[in-house]
Design brief:
mainly beta; about 300 residues; ten-stranded mixed β-sheet; 2 domains; about 10% helix
C-alpha cells in the first residue's frame, strides 16, 4: 500500500505569482529558493514517474560538514514548490534508484547508532512515500536487483537472572545487530519476501547443508528456526547458552545463504548475530506456498 507523509505534506501547492513554472533545473531551484527563503544544499532534478514531466527534490538548510546536512525537504514541479518534510539531519548525498519506470530518492537521517531511510518518489505528479519508508536503517540494491533493508536492534544476547519473576525488567537484551530483509518492486508497491519455516530434513535436501548442521552442532548450539524465502534464501536461527554470576545468558546467531542449484559450503554462507524474523514488515510480506527449491 502506498501512502503520503502523514504530518508534513500539504495537499495544496503553495501559491506562486507564476501560473506555471518553466520545467528546468534552474526554474525549479529558483522557485524553491523564493518560497523557502533558504539555501539549497542538495537537489535532484529528474522525471521520477516517467510521464515526460520532470520534478525536483531538494534539501533546504545548511551543511554541517563534508558528509552531513541539516534541513527540510522540498518538492517542485511546474505548479510550484512546497515543503514535504520538516528539518532533520541527513547524509549529504542521497542515493537515487530506478525500478522499472519509477525513480526513488533515499534520504538517510543519521544517528549515532545508524540511519533511518526516508524514500520519496512521484505518483500522479505528486510526491509520495512508499510503504517501506522509515521502516529500516538502510536501503540498498543487491546483485539480484532486490531491495535490501537493514534492521538495527538489540537482540544478540538475552540475560535472565536466576530469581527471574516473569516481569519485563527481569530479562535484559544486549548486543546490537544489523540483519537484512529482502524486498521487490511489483510496479506499484514494494513487497517483502516473507519466510515459511522448514524442517531440518527439508534443509538436508540441499547438497552441503549437512556441513552447516555439523558446524552448528560443533558450536554446542541448538537450532530455533529454519526459514525459506521465495528468492531461494535460507536462514537458520540458532542459540548457545552460558552461565555466569547467577544468570543465564542466551546468545543468538544466524546463518544465511542463497541456494542457486549447486553444493553450498559454509564459506559461502553469511554468519551473523541476532534473531532473523519471518518478516520485518508483515503487512508487506508475501509468503511462499511451500518449500519448492530446486536441488538439481
Amino acid at each position: 500500500m502506498l501512502h503520503s507523509d502523514k504530518k508534513n505534506q500539504s495537499n495544496e501547492i503553495v501559491d506562486s505569482e507564476f501560473e506555471e513554472i518553466t520545467m528546468s533545473e534552474t526554474g525549479y531551484k529558483d522557485e524553491i529558493l523564493k518560497m523557502s527563503n533558504g539555501k539549497i544544499v542538495y537537489e535532484h532534478y529528474n522525471d521520477f514517474d516517467s510521464d515526460g514531466i520532470c520534478e525536483m527534490f531538494a534539501i533546504v538548510g545548511k551543511e554541517m560538514d563534508d558528509k552531513t546536512v541539516t534541513g527540510t525537504i522540498w518538492f517542485a514541479n511546474q505548479q510550484g514548490a512546497y515543503k514535504i518534510e520538516e528539518s532533520k539531519s541527513y547524509w549529504k548525498y542521497p542515493e537515487v534508484y530506478l525500478f522499472e519506470d519509477d525513480i526513488f530518492i533515499a534520504f538517510n537521517e543519521y544517528y549515532a547508532a545508524g540511519t533511518v531511510t526516508y524514500l520519496w518518489g512521484v505518483q500522479n505528479g505528486k510526491p509520495f512515500q512508499p510503504s517501506i519508508t522509515d521502516k529500516a536503517n538502510g536501503f540498498t540494491i543487491n546483485n539480484y536487483n532486490e531491495v535490501i533493508l537493514a534492521y538495527n536492534t538489540l537482540n544478540a544476547m538475552r540475560t535472565i537472572n536466576d530469581d527471574w519473576k516473569i516481569l519485563p525488567d527481569d530479562e535484559m537484551w544486549s548486543g546490537r545487530t544489523i540483519n537484512q530483509y529482502y524486498y521487490y518492486w511489483n510496479g506499484s508497491s514494494f513487497r517483502e519476501y516473507g519466510a515459511i519455516e522448514i524442517t531440518v530434513d527439508e534443509l538436508l535436501q540441499i547438497d552441503g547443508a549437512d556441513e552447516i548442521i555439523a558446524y552448528i552442532n560443533d558450536c554446542g548450539a541448538s537450532i530455533n528456526e529454519i526459514y525459506y524465502r521465495d528468492n531461494n534464501v535460507i536462514q537458520i536461527n540458532y542459540q548457545t547458552e552460558e552461565r555466569e554470576s547467577g544468570a543465564t545468558m542466551t546468545n543468538y546467531h544466524n546463518i544465511t545463504f542463497r541456494y542457486v542449484g549447486k553444493r553450498i559450503t559454509l564459506e559461502e554462507c553469511e554468519l551473523g548475530d541476532g534473531i532473523i524474523l519471518r518478516a520485518l514488515n508483515t503487512s508487506l510480506a508475501e509468503y511462499p506456498d511451500e518449500f519448492n527449491i530446486k536441488t538439481n
